[in-house]
Design brief:
Layout lengths: L8 H10 L4 H9 L1 H23 L5 H58 L3 H24 L1
Helix pairs in contact: 1-3, 2-3
């Protein structure tokens, strides 16, 4: 392959892609070695592409209908799965709210006592508690997504 580059290579590639090389560009490819080589190689590749596309099997209407039904079924399953995950997450939030409602005061006292014993920054403690509470939920959601 030549290391030389011609300024009209892009123009030649566009013309080959359209399927029509004008007389001026055709004359240029005869006098310019890089463009002549490009026309030979790219022209062969584009001809092979056109030939392959012409010979490509077109699926029957029944096959296309079946594929469409399968795609619709997969989309419906994904929508149902999303709805179930949302419902389960709401149920989990309600369960946590009920636990906090029933045991909130004792839990709050115990946490305050723990904080006083450990002398931990309250922001750090909230971050740790949040991660401890959200990690199992995130893992559960990740598993359910598969």
């Amino acid at each position: 392959m030549n290391a030389e580059r011609c300024q009209r290579e892009e123009e030649l590639l566009d013309a080959l892609g359209r399927g029509y090389v004008g007389p001026e560009l055709d004359a240029h490819t005869l006098s310019c070695d890089p463009c002549g080589e490009l026309r030979l190689v790219a022209g062969a590749l584009l001809d092979d592409k056109a030939h392959t596309m012409a010979e490509a099997p077109v699926p029957t209407a029944g096959t296309m209908w079946w594929r469409m039904r399968m795609r619709h079924r997969r989309e419906a399953e994904a929508t149902a799965r999303r709805s179930l995950v949302i419902g389960q997450a709401v149920t989990l939030v309600i369960a946590i709210a009920l636990v906090v409602t029933f045991f909130g005061e004792e839990t709050a006292v115990a946490v305050r006592h723990l904080v006083a014993m450990l002398r931990v920054n309250s922001l750090l403690l909230y971050a740790i508690l949040t991660s401890v509470l959200l990690a199992p939920i995130a893992g559960w959601v990740a598993i359910r997504q598969k």
